[in-house]
Amino acid sequence: MTINVIDLFCGCGGMSWGLYKAGFQILAGIDYDDEVLRTFQVNHNESLALKADLTQLDPQELMKKLNLKPGEVDCLIGGPPCQGFSKNVPAAYRFLKDPRNQLFHDFLRFVEALRPNVVIMENVAEIYAAYKGTIREEIIETLNQLGYAVDVHVLYAPDFGVPQRRRRCFFFASRTGISPDFPTPTFRSVETLFEERYITAWEAISDLPALQNGEGYEPMPYIQPPLNDYQKTMRCESPVLFDHVTRKLNDKQLARVAAIQPGEGIKNLPDQLRPKSGYSGAYGRLDFEMIAPTITRWVFHPGSGRFYHPRDNRLITIREAARLQSFSDDFRFQGTYIQKAHQVGNAVPPLLIAGLVPSIKACLRLPTEDQWREQAASVAD
To answer: Looking at 75, 82, 169, 363, which residue is catalytic?
Structure first.
């Protein structure tokens, strides 16, 4: 049985990509931004990419376009824009009635009209406790009134195979009579004699060709085989690399990266190169032994995070940033370099949503891959 999906506030399609790779059918992605929809459409060329302001779109119009009736959508997913909740916005500028804090109402309006069997809504981790939990409780109460059993968790991306410290809040709802159950973390660990740990940033990107400042072209061939299972997964069906091109740094930026070691940052810069101001994570190099920090939409700027390559004197490329977000190499971004950076940084890591696939199937009363294998083995016997 095919599981169909509609993605609201889809962005470039990180959530859809994770489910598509798991065999789900993506019916449509809706957003108001032309460039993110171009990216969504290129990667989901059999899906409807609809440009629309979801605060104004009538759900009946969407159902008419897709020839759907209420109750025929298996899974409704989406991430209403979250800037109003984010800790990156100073507390003095956060307030409950901020219009950016109210877009979840439009998501819930589509839930009421479409009556999907399963609902997955994600947002920044801060929404869980924002305004003393009032937003969280309002979302749960509304879904309950619509006939859904609901659970909500803040998930840590490395627990689901993503080599990046990223926390996101997920609302998981079902109206099938089976309560949603978040999966036990199943991170793709690296086992050594003494420890079990997460995949590091370096292990995620170390097979990609070495580049220096301003170098790169596309398409680019792989020059060595994958070095671990994560890299095999990321290479997927892609015969070549795209977006493995460096953004050229100016002389001062280049001098800064050359002056620090892996894992170091702004506090380690010599006086003559240190900016007058900047937060602790700025102008940082990735380390060979650590998970990447959160990849943000500012990944194109060294002063906005730990975005210097751990070995080469340069910024990480869009493809390397996408690897750290768990986008497989066959995912193609569209637009300018900065637009691509925004798309990567704003996306939900595909492997994070893929971690919910067994739970979604359970709510839909569908066997998981392990259960299929058990059934096939029993028939064979």
So the answer is: 82
Angle between the N-to-C axes of helices 14-21 and 34-43, in degrees from 0 to 180, rounded to the nearest 10: 10
CATH of span 4-186+350-374: 3.40.50.150
Report which residue type is found at 328. Answer: S
| Domain-wise residue ranges, the chain | 4-186+350-374
Residues comprising the chain, all counted: 381
Largest Cα–Cα distance in the chain? 74
Whole-angstrom CA distances from 246 to 209, 242, 307 are: 12, 12, 12
pTM of the entire structure? 0.90
Three-state helix/strand/coil letters over 40-109: HHHHCCCCEEEECCCCCCCHHHHHHHHCCCCCCCCEEEECCCCCCCCCCCCHHHCCCCCHHHCCHHHHHH
Question: At 322, which amino acid appears?
Answer: A
> How do strand 118-124 and strand 75-78 relate by DSSP bridges?
parallel
Q: Which amino acid is at 28?
A: A
Helix (H) or strand (E) holding 361: helix 357-363
Task: Identify whether 82 is a catalytic site residue.
Answer: yes
Q: What are phi and psi of 230, to 5 degrees?
A: -60, -45
**Cis peptide preceding 219, ω within 30 of 0:** yes
Helix ranges (H only) for 85-129 are 104-114
pLDDT digits (tens, 9 = 90+) for 119-147: 999 999 999 998 889 999 999 999 999 99
